[in-house]
Specification:
This protein is 40% helix and 19% strand. By secondary structure, it is an alpha/beta fold. Strand 11 and strand 12 form a beta hairpin.
């Protein structure tokens, strides 16, 4: 088939048949014309995607056969894309050939992974990606885009007043519609991705907030010291009570967002940021403290903390033991392809409230408000909007192994179509 000539930038979507990918594809199709971007889809069974596109006539996006187990099928797809939005996980296993093809063909790359060993390996390719003129952005979903973007907005807010951000304290609260089952909360794809982290042969890095700063001082010239980050910003799992609410460690893993936030700080073009470490902490609010329900919430917070601690300890086991444990968990947890199938919008909302301080003594608040199931509605919309934004250009400061906030570069308005709004004030 002849490749149509287009002057529009192209966003290439992988994983369009998955739980998150289906929502992302629908979103891209409603937004592409508005933004002036062409959508291209790569799937191992193109007919399944075409069946979903039935009725769109000539405006339907082109679908190419791409099987990530056959890297040769990737080249024609990536060669046509300006940005590859990769929603095919688990990423540790499936993403490396996609990233390699993006480096070869000069396409930007966006995905949702919270798999730490993979992000670490990408960080080691920072200089190569910069030389190729591309940005590689992991964790562009509920993990870790909201925390990264809200802190970045606060960093810019402080800088506008001539100050430098010193600390960020975030609390996220999700409102779940009544009657929602567990299968609507976490997909098999996410469960299997967590298992892949355990299976990875590289040394465990879960729980290190500075894991994404490796090599930056030497290569990117940042002054942020990983040890200073570890000292001022440790990841704590212990539940707390604050402002009348029970706070549990961030879900699904407290170790995913902090390394991203610290990498943005270290590479930020905002004045003063890259010279100072940031004290960052975050938590999930389980609701009010008080009465019998309060005790039940506190028990749930301790259970979440104990589960996360078990994950950190399991990640430190010798590799053969971890690999065997991963095999067992992989069989017992929901399989890839299962998960939220229904309405990811109605009744769902969530917000992240932030309290911020500056080195100059300033204090202010911020809030990120969003609609939709955070993991499978808002995540797909945010990642799609970030890809659409990047298709129109990426600043030089965001090239390399990047972050959602570096790639968005302060353009908060780009997230409004993803139903995400940020406000900052006193
Ligand atoms: N950061 C966040 O907040 C966040 C939120 C949600 C999800 N995630 C992550 O996003 C990823 C996807 O989650 P999901 O629930 O949407 O997963 P899913 O439903 O299992 O979908 C996986 C997708 O990958 C495709 N795929 C698998 N192997 C492939 C191959 N060899 N070649 C081409 N395509 C292949 C599947 O295609 P087939 O249909 O052909 O199998 C499917 O489209 C997971 O890693 C998850 O952890 C992150």
């Amino acid at each position: 088939m002849e490749t149509p000539i287009t002057s529009r930038p192209v966003v290439g979507l992988l994983g369009a048949t998955g739980i998150t990918g289906r929502v992302a594809l629908d979103h891209l199709l409603t937004r592409a014309d508005e933004v002036g971007v062409e959508v291209l889809v790569g799937a191992r069974d193109p007919d399944r995607v075409r069946a979903r596109l039935d009725g769109r006539g000539p405006s339907a996006p082109q679908v190419l056969r791409v099987d990530l187990a056959e890297p040769a099928t990737l080249a024609p797809f990536v060669a046509r894309a300006d940005v590859v939005l990769n929603l095919a996980g688990p990423y540790t296993r499936l993403a490396p050939p996609v990233i390699a093809a993006c480096l070869d063909h000069g396409a930007h790359y966006v995905d949702l992974t919270g798999e730490a060993p993979l992000a670490h390996r990408t960080d080691l390719m920072h200089d190569r990606a910069r030389a190729a003129g591309i940005a590689i952005v992991h964790t562009a979903g509920f993990e870790a885009l909201p925390a990264d973007i809200l802190v970045d907005a606060a960093r810019r807010h402080a800088a506008a007043a001539g100050e430098t951000l010193r600390s960020a304290d975030l609390v996220t609260r999700v409102r779940v519609p009544a009657g929602t089952g567990r299968e609507e909360m976490i997909s098999g794809g996410t469960a299997q991705s967590l298992v892949e982290v355990l299976r990875d042969p590289e040394p465990a890095r879960l729980g290190d907030p500075a894991v994404r700063l490796a090599g930056l001082r030497a290569h990117a010239g940042t002054a942020v010291d990983p040890d200073a980050v570890r000292r001022c910003s440790p990841i704590r799992l212990r539940p707390r009570r604050s402002a009348g609410a029970v706070l549990a460690p961030m879900t699904p893993l407290a170790s995913i967002n902090p390394p991203v936030v610290h990498r943005t700080q270290a590479l930020s073009p905002v004045a003063g940021a890259a010279a100072t470490p940031l004290a960052f902490r975050e938590a999930t609010s389980l609701g009010c403290w008080g009465g019998t329900a309060g005790w039940a919430r506190l028990a749930a917070a301790w259970l979440a903390a104990a589960t996360q601690l078990a994950a950190v300890l399991a990640s430190r086991l010798p590799h053969p033991v971890r690999a065997r444990l991963a095999d067992v968990l992989s069989r017992r947890l929901p399989p890839s392809g299962s998960g939220p199938q229904g309405d990811v919008l109605t009744g769902w909302s969530w917000e992240t409230k932030g309290r911020f301080t500056t080195h100059e003594g300033g204090r202010f608040h911020g809030v990120l408000q969003a609609e939709g199931n955070p993991g499978y509605g808002t995540t797909a919309w945010m990642a799609a909007e970030l890809a659409l934004h990047m298709a129109q250009g990426v600043p030089e400061t965001a090239l390399g192994s990047s972050t959602p906030a570096l790639a968005l570069d302060g353009h908060l308005e780009a997230l409004i179509p993803a139903r995400v709004r940020i406000r900052l004030g006193e």
